[in-house]
Automatic annotation (TrEMBL):
Keywords recorded for this protein, A-Z: Transferase
Alphabetized Gene3D superfamilies for the sequence: Crotonobetainyl-coa:carnitine coa-transferase, domain 1, formyl-coa transferase, domain 3
UniProt xrefs under Pfam families: CoA_transf_3 (PF02515)
Signal peptide extent: none
A GO molecular function held by the record: CoA-transferase activity
Record organism: Plastoroseomonas arctica
Entry superkingdom: Bacteria
Lipoprotein among keywords: no
Protein name listed in UniProt: CoA transferase
Amino acid sequence: MPDTHTPLPLAGIRVLDLTLARAGPTCVRHLADWGAEVIRVEPPSGDDALGNPRDGYDFQNLHRNKRSIALNLKDEAGLAAFYKLAATADVVVENMRMQVKYRLKVGPDDLRAINPRLIYASISGFGQTGPYSTRGGVDQIAQGMAGLMSITGLPGQGPVRVGIPICDLTAGNLLALGVMMALYERVTTGKGKHVTTSLLESMVFMLDFQASRYLMAGEVAGQAGNDHPVNSPMGVFQTSDKLVNIAASSTKLWTVFCKAAGREDWLEKEEWKTAKGRTADRPALNAAIAEQMKKHSAQWWIDTLEEAGIPCGPVNDIAEVFADPQVQHLRMALPMGDTHVVDSAINIEGHETSVHSLPPKLGQHSEEILLEAGVTRDEIAALRARNAIL
């Protein structure tokens, strides 16, 4: 059992969170969940780039385990207070438009002049340099520009958006990994680095074998629907009561599948004897499998194919996901107050993530954070008088 008294891996790391929307907060959520002290620096207006209420499901899921200071960075005194926070921070994470952080004087050069050990982490739409660097980017724009929408959906359907903000989430995940690398390097060098990624870069990276098909073989992938782009049979099939996924494309698995399905005659069909042949004749192959699959229930097929060693599983909706016994065993629905949020998917022996604190109210910790940074009570009162803090 994890030792709940053992400090989490990132205990002692102080993070200033300047992020909005989803990509940046996704990065910071990793750090906060694993023990970093996260100070969310918010404008006194409390504006949220996603337009979500502070007590709504999205904000609550993204911003647990943080403290909040409401600080006006456009005010000279507010900026000076922020610099005091930066002097003792280990990491700053931001996803502003490239030019905005420089206009506010909170860019990497501004802050590392104060604190050379600072890791400055940035997510943008298209990169910190280059012809698109000043453009704002959102998830669906990046999905389209990175080619993801061109390979998603049924053949001939036209471009389809992936059902989650995959560019935001992937960029946030990758930036968190980059922060960890920079922190590790700092142990040796004593110096911080500017770590960056973008929605566009993260999605081109995630094209993976579809990208390498083009780069190495000149093949431009198209839409394959629920079928695997190059392997067959691998896709979605209707049983008597529910859709299931099966993956039986290798020679060994194909042989086992035919026997488990009671169709050993398929092994004698010349067009289906090789992986290449099965893919070339996919419409006829899929039709034959679909007809056979309808003879039994999803559970019957899952039990039969699992016993035979063939990867398979139901196509669940979101409610069915969280009712699944394996998902429940993995505790992916994390209790938080009187509700649940999504838990971290990272597991480290001897540790468990948890909700250390509920998402903060706007400016809930402004005074205590500033006092910790050496700002006097009189100076705090002066900041409040000029509406530099909340």
